[in-house]
Amino acid sequence: MKKGIDAPLVPIMFLLVGVVGLVTAIVSKDWTNYIFPIVLLLFSGLYLNTSLSGKYKIIRRLVRKMNLSSNSQVLDLGTGHGAFLLEISRQLKAPGKVVGLDIWNQGDQSGNAIEETQHNIDRMGVSNVSKLVTGNMTKLPFEDNHFDSVVASLSIHNVKPKSSREKAIDEAYRVLKPEGQLVILDIEHIGEYRNRLKQLGVNSVQVEHAGINGMYAALSTKILIAKK
């Protein structure tokens, strides 16, 4: 599976500034000057580990926890290279289907393109239960109460401003079937999502930390699980 780095400019900046800082520290011969660049290099390592490995471990655990039936209809918001979509597709059999929706912005994830994700789907042999669409999560092209589950991994925080993120939550709720489950991984705005869902009448909202595998430098991934 081809993977992409989330917000790729961030770890690049950590790495570059860290290397420059190390050179400066060596020249200065002052050990205290090593502290800042070493922290930045550690941040870069944590970020890359989560982006390329850790989040996939989290997603595998979550998909098992979702206990999907083989004919489930699932929507993946901001699917990117298909981390959630591909793991979910392993659990499905036609007519089960997982739909991956994205605007395919490479600033959000390196190499983010519908052709790349379709290639991942084809390589795994799950095209019969997977479908990709281009669309905006603030205006979903689906009927009300259509999906058994809606998932989103590190995507909704890219929607700006706050009113648009609230619209994305509204849309996810709208297309979710009664008793359906919503699963969101994100590094920002989890409290905002929880409050919006409560405004929509959702009583069952759980939030937990994803642990070391979800650390994007100093930012910790949180997991929100809600039931309509």
Automatic annotation (TrEMBL):
> Which enzyme class?
transferase
* Keyword terms of this UniProt record: Membrane, Methyltransferase, Transferase, Transmembrane, Transmembrane helix
> Highest taxon of the source?
Bacteria
| GO MF annotations, alphabetized | methyltransferase activity
Could you tell me which species this protein originates from? Levilactobacillus angrenensis
Kindly provide the name given to this protein in its UniProt entry.
Class I SAM-dependent methyltransferase
Q: Name one Pfam family in it.
A: Methyltransf_11
List the InterPro entries hit by this protein, alphabetically. Methyltransf_11, SAM-dependent_MTases_sf
According to the entry, every stretch annotated as the Methyltransferase type domain falls at 75-184
Q: Which GO terms describe its biological process?
A: methylation
Chain ranges passing through the membrane: 7-28, 34-52
Q: What is its EC number?
A: 2.1.1.-
